[in-house]
Design a protein that fits this description.
The protein is an alpha+beta fold. 47% of the residues lie in helices and 17% in strands. It contains 15 helices and 23 strands. The strands form nine sheets. A four-stranded antiparallel sheet has the order 5-8-9-10. Strands 11-12-13 form a three-stranded antiparallel sheet. A three-stranded antiparallel sheet has the order 14-18-17. The two termini are 24 Å apart.
């Protein structure tokens, strides 16, 4: 028969179990607002009984373990949707900011400026010699070009801002990965001795896992799944081997981590390139492999891999807008300049041309097409006195020896352009061709009127020969090289009214010739708004009007923004639903904890009553001796 002291021990074990229950319940209540905290439950069991006649006699209770109420399946879904929501939230906010740069409503925006610009050309065609209209046209051209450059700057600044966020976020990923690896060591040490789960350390690890998921869409892979149905029907957890990966690349492997590297030193625009460092030190490009979380959203917007030739991203929503906007402005610049080259001048100097003058023009970086253009000379009264056709085909180069198919040879050829057997009134008599190199080693093309002819009032112009009367069917030689420019610049970043026209707008021409009342050039400029051109963006070509191309850009921005908003609504609904499911399994419920507190308080009181009863029994025994 067990001794009375064993009965006292049974009461004490009840007190101990109840106290542990109260401690755990209090721990739950204290951490009700702690991020990532998972409610814990005391698992108790009967102590090993005493074997004796007439059978096994109970020996009280003991705490088996304290475990988290945690569902790994729900947590994995919660993590995945956390990454989706972070991606979607950042995308939505960024695109909503982008859409404010294109307020194409209520006669406000670049399209409205374009309409006013072409309306001014119409007014100029009606009054080709009016200086006040020239001033107004110059002002509107500057307004249009400034609006284009300021909008492109806003887009580029937004792209740069989110690029700068990469450094902060990648550094945070590396810090969290390191912390996670160290935490794994602590968990292994804590659980290796008596095998009790390190609940609070595992909670801390889950918080870091979710942070990594939100930041970079990281996935966690662990060993075997263990069910905890004694605690809750949906409770389970994983244990064993542990890795955290990004599309198969482990950034945490047990108690070691592999940092991500950032590099922008060789990029002139400061765009970061991301790489994964293996244990052997090899760097693997990662920009195109990160597709979720906030960093995935940044790369999706900014663009992933960087083109080593241009130092710009190859893709990305913002980069597409930048590229399309540059293509829009480039075509506006070149097509306008190609038309404006029909106006007369005594000297035409091109942009800086980064081409090999001995290579084919059709294979160069310039948008020059096969065909021909005319060089026309006018006298002081606007009468045409000479004209020469310059042909461009696959064999045409910029410079070349006499008799070759180069622009230089064709311009300098001794040809009787007027068929009048006069050797002194042809194009080569009036004009000189010069492939100039400046002090910086940069090249440009120059056509200049002979000083003697210039002193007599002679001027010249370049006129594209159109194959089918469409402005886009010419060679675009003057537009591509920038001869006799109306607009300076190459794209949306630097488009501006020609410097000389800014200083003196009265130099602006409305006609082909210097004759008073000639408005043919202004009429061409008015017609330009209705002409279709090819807008080339990488491997894609849009055939559209200038208005139409801008509409494509603004519509794409609006469409992408609406798509992001709708996607965000869907992801948010899914996230909220999963978050509630996760909270219902693992979060602390004050009502439930208060019920448990009453239960353990009652158990504690009952166990204390057992001890009081045993105490009275012992007093009775002691009284018998007296």
């Amino acid at each position: 028969m067990p001794s009375i002291f064993n009965s006292l021990h049974i009461g004490y074990s009840g007190l101990s179990v109840a106290q542990q229950g109260i401690d755990t319940t209090g721990h739950n209540i204290a951490n009700v607002d702690s991020e990532g905290y998972t409610r814990q439950r005391v698992m108790s069991e009967a102590s090993t009984p005493i074997h004796m006649l007439p059978g096994q006699v109970g020996n009280g209770a003991q705490v088996q373990t304290i475990k988290r109420v945690f569902d790994n399946f729900v947590f994995d879904r919660y993590n995945g949707l956390s990454a989706d929501k972070e991606f979607s939230d950042f995308e939505k906010n960024t695109l909503e900011e982008l859409s404010t740069y294109f307020p194409e409503i209520d006669a406000v925006g670049i399209k409205a400026d374009l309409q006013k610009y072409y309306n001014m050309w119409q007014s100029f065609s009606d009054n080709p010699d009016n200086s006040a209209i020239k001033l107004a046209l110059a002002k509107q051209a500057q307004t249009l070009s400034t609006h284009i450059t300021s909008t492109q700057k806003q887009v580029l600044d937004l792209q740069s801002q989110i690029n700068d966020q990469l450094e902060v976020n990648i550094n945070e990923v590396n810090d969290l990965s390191k912390e996670l690896a160290e935490l794994n060591i602590q968990i292994d040490v804590a659980e290796s001795g008596d095998g009790y789960p390190a609940n609070d350390l595992r909670d801390k690890r889950n918080v870091i896992e979710r942070s990594l998921s939100r930041l970079i869409g990281a996935d966690v892979n662990q060993g075997l799944m263990e069910s905890n149905i004694q605690i809750d029907s949906s409770s389970n957890t994983r244990s064993g081997s542990y890795t955290v990966n990004i599309n198969g690349f482990n950034i945490v492997d047990g108690n070691t981590y592999h940092p991500l590297r950032l590099d922008k030193d060789t990029n002139k625009y400061g765009f970061y390139d991301i790489s994964y460092e293996r244990q052997d030190g090899t760097l693997i490009p990662m920009a195109e492999k990160i597709t979720n979380g906030k960093i995935g959203s940044i790369l999706s917007l900014r663009g992933g891999a960087i083109d080593t030739t241009t130092d710009m991203p190859r893709d990305g929503i913002l980069q597409n807008v930048v590229s399309e906007f540059d293509a829009f402005a480039k075509k506006l610049i070149e097509s306008t300049n190609n038309l404006y080259a029909q106006s007369t001048d005594t000297k035409m100097e091109s942009n800086i041309l980064k081409i090999n003058p001995s290579n084919s023009l059709l294979n160069s970086s310039l948008d020059i097409r096969e065909g021909s253009f005319d060089v026309v000379v006018y006298d002081i009264d606007g009468n045409q006195v000479a004209s020469r056709k310059i042909n461009i085909d696959i064999g045409t180069t910029m410079t070349g020896a006499s008799g070759s198919n180069s622009i230089e040879a064709q311009m300098n050829a001794n040809v009787d352009d007027n068929d009048d057997s006069n050797a002194n009134n042809d194009i080569d008599d009036y004009l000189t061709f010069n492939w100039a190199t400046n002090a910086n080693g940069e090249n440009s093309l120059e056509f200049r009127m002979d000083p003697s002819s210039e002193s007599k009032g002679y001027t010249f112009a370049i006129m594209d020969e159109l194959k089918d009367n469409k402005f886009s069917s010419g060679t675009n030689f003057a537009g591509a090289t920038g001869l006799n420019r109306f607009f300076d610049g190459k794209n949306a970043r630097d488009i501006t009214l020609n410097h000389e026209l800014k200083i003196n707008p009265t130099l602006m021409s409305a006609g082909y010739s210097p004759a008073a009342g000639d408005n043919r050039l202004a009429l061409d400029m008015v017609q330009q708004q209705f002409e279709k051109y090819d807008f080339k963006i990488d491997t894609v070509t849009y055939n559209s009007t200038i208005y139409g191309m801008f509409d494509n850009i603004a519509t794409e921005v609006g469409t992408e923004t609406n798509r992001a908003v709708l996607r965000n609504e869907t992801v948010t609904a899914q996230f909220n639903s999963t978050e509630k499911e996760y909270a219902s399994v693992s979060k602390v419920s004050i009502d439930e904890e208060m019920t448990n507190l009453i239960k353990y308080q009652t158990s504690y009181g009952a166990a204390a009553k057992v001890i009081t009863t045993i105490d009275q029994m012992m007093q009775t025994l002691l009284g018998i001796k007296q």
